[in-house]
């Protein structure tokens, strides 16, 4: 391979590595925002909640950078096969991570609202759900960096656990509100926080689907092994 070809390949690899690094940074930021939003909800910490809200602009900036870098790779490098899927996947994952940051911001705003209300015992259930969501997000991000489709499928399958936790909290909060109308405002804020956590779980599932598609070039839901588990 001549020196020009070596330079082109080296530059291409550098571009893809920079894209992966930016995604890793955005993933760490989003993960930290979720963890801190849930902690702020549990500890009734306005300062921590506000710090999550402030970080949302950083997440937006990183997503914009990833989009711009990925578009430049598509325009200048003309990637094929797996590299093309990696580049498109980066855009999709960045979008999901930015939305996760938005949802963490929303939880933090609800936490601040809740601090002006009487404490609700059901906050413990939402905090437990938050820990589970954060754990699955961490596992999905690790699977993304390792290109581990097996781990991605496991996280994707576990999303039903998050849905069940949300439905349980929904039923409990509705019962709580019917039993004490004075708790409606606080219960509603807590319900919105739980819904945001459920949606973070959905975006985590999206990331897992991107991991699978990048490696296999097909949809995770069409995998025979996955279909057999869903039956």
What's the gist of this structure?
This protein is an all-alpha fold. It has a single domain (3-230), classed as Phosphate transport system protein phou homolog 2, domain 2 (Methane Monooxygenase Hydroxylase, Chain G, domain 1), CATH 1.20.58.220. It has helices at residues 3-43, 46-77, 81-114, 123-146, 149-157, 159-179, 184-216, 224-230.
Describe the structure.
By secondary structure, this protein is mostly helical. It has a single domain, classed as Phosphate transport system protein phou homolog 2, domain 2 (Methane Monooxygenase Hydroxylase, Chain G, domain 1, Up-down Bundle), CATH 1.20.58. It contains 8 helices and no strands. It has helices at 3-43, 46-77, 81-114, 123-146, 149-157, 159-179, 184-216, 224-230. α4 runs antiparallel to α6 and α6 (159-179) packs antiparallel against α7. The radius of gyration is 20 Å and the shape is globular. Mean pLDDT is 88; it is low at 1-10.
Low-confidence stretches: 1-10
* Biggest beta-sheet profile: none
Estimated radius of gyration: 20 Å
| Domain count | 1
CATH fold-level topology: Methane Monooxygenase Hydroxylase, Chain G, domain 1
The CATH architecture can be given as Up-down Bundle
Give the class from helix and strand content and strand pairing.
mainly alpha
Cα distance spanning the termini = 51 Å
Give the class-level CATH name. Answer: Mainly Alpha
Beta content: under 5%
Q: How many extended strands?
A: 0
CATH superfamily: Phosphate transport system protein phou homolog 2, domain 2
The number of helical runs is 8
Q: What is the helical fraction, as a range of percent?
A: over 70%
Q: What shape does the CA trace take?
A: globular
Mean pLDDT: 88
State the order of secondary-structure elements, H for helix, E for strand. Answer: HHHHHHHH
């Amino acid at each position: 391979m001549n020196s020009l070809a070596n330079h082109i390949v080296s530059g291409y690899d550098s571009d893809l590595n920079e894209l992966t690094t930016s995604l890793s940074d955005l993933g760490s930021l989003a993960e930290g925002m979720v963890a801190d939003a849930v902690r702020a909800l549990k500890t009734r910490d306005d300062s921590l909640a506000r710090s999550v809200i402030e970080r949302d602009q950083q997440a937006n900036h990183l997503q914009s950078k990833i989009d711009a870098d990925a578009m430049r790779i598509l325009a200048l490098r003309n990637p094929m096969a797996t590299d093309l899927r990696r580049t498109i996947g980066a855009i999709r994952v960045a979008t999901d991570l930015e939305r996760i940051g938005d949802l963490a911001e929303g939880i933090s705003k609800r936490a601040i609202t809740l601090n002006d209300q009487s404490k609700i015992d059901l906050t413990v259930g939402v905090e437990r759900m938050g820990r589970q969501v954060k754990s699955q997000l961490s596992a999905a991000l690790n699977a993304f960096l390792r290109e581990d489709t097996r781990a991605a499928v496991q996280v994707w399958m576990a999303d039903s656990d998050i849905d069940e936790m949300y439905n349980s909290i929904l039923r409990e909060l509705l019962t709580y509100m019917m039993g004490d109308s004075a708790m409606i405002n606080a219960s509603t804020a807590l319900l919105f926080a739980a819904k945001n956590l459920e949606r973070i779980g959905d975006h985590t599932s999206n990331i897992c689907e991107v991991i699978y598609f990048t490696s296999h070039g097909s949809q995770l839901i069409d995998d025979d092994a996955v279909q057999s588990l869903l039956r």
